[in-house]
Amino acid sequence: MSGAVIGVIPARWGSTRFPGKSLAMIAGKPLVVRVVEQALKARRLDRVVVATDDPRIARAVEPCGVGIAMTRPDHPSGTDRVAEAVRGLAADVVVNVQGDEPLVDPGLIDRLAETLTGDPAWDMATAASPIQACAQLENPSVVKVVWDRSHRALYFSRWAIPFVRDGVAASVPHWRHIGIYAYRRAFLDRMVTEPPCALEQAEKLEQLRALDMGARIMVVETESFDAGVDTPEDVQYVEAALWRRG
């Protein structure tokens, strides 16, 4: 499958804030199954693989007809789990579809994949949506991103960037980083062999390791963003969003 685009959904059991959340029921289906269903709607993925450390999650996705990669339980990040899952598989581009975002837009997955298949200059691609509320801007859990005129990422931060010194921000948009990534396979393999850099350790953002390595990261703008499932309280919000979508 040389030249293929593989979508990988990392789904571990041991979430700190919500253990076992991959199997939390979302409108009658396990969370991870909801994510798989969205990924399967993407046109640019030649294959979808669930990377998990738990046989219960593997059994839940078996009926979906996707690949299953049993991975180590001690990976420090989802990126490391994704890299292990595609080891031995032929692919030029790997898309990391977060396993806790059942509302992920298949069209966005396609746009990220097409960014890398269409232009060999990019090492990675990710996404951002406009920040509309001050509460989001001030929330360190909402990661912000800034980019240059070619949409190459300059920096990611939990702080409100860009900082507007005179307090007049009408002409300066702020953007929320959406944690979905497309990697060129060769760069992904390099990234997981690098130790965390100082900026990554300070902000606890692994994409800063990629920037420190000199990566060219394309940021795709999107209006489509729905929060994922981080805590049990998020289940009700996601179910309501699904019902609104019909």
Short description:
The protein has a single domain, classed as Spore Coat Polysaccharide Biosynthesis Protein SpsA, Chain A, CATH 3.90.550.10. It is 30% helix and 23% strand. The chain has helices at 31-40, 55-61, 78-85, 106-118, 134-138, 185-191, 198-203, 207-212, 234-245; strands at residues 5-11, 25-26, 29-30, 47-52, 67-70, 93-96, 124-130, 144-147, 153-157, 175-184, 217-221.
Q: What's the SSE blueprint?
A:
Layout: E1 5-11, E2 25-26, E3 29-30, H1 31-40, E4 47-52, H2 55-61, E5 67-70, H3 78-85, E6 93-96, H4 106-118, E7 124-130, H5 134-138, E8 144-147, E9 153-157, E10 175-184, H6 185-191, H7 198-203, H8 207-212, E11 217-221, H9 234-245
Parallel strand pairs: 1-4, 1-6, 4-5, 7-11
Antiparallel strand pairs: 2-3, 6-10, 7-10, 8-9
List keywords for this structure.
246 residues, alpha/beta
Beta-strand segment tally: 11
- Mean pLDDT value: 92
The rounded Rg comes to 17 Å
CATH fold call: Spore Coat Polysaccharide Biosynthesis Protein SpsA, Chain A
Percent strand? 15-25%
Task: Give the termini separation.
Answer: 36 Å
Structural class: alpha/beta
Structure description:
- By secondary structure, the protein is an alpha/beta fold.
- It has a single domain, classed as Spore Coat Polysaccharide Biosynthesis Protein SpsA, Chain A, CATH 3.90.550.10.
- Helix content is 30%, strand content 23%.
- The chain has 9 helices and 11 strands.
- It has a 7-stranded mixed beta sheet with strand order 5-4-1-6-10-7-11, with helices on both faces.
- β4, α2 and β5 form a beta-alpha-beta unit.
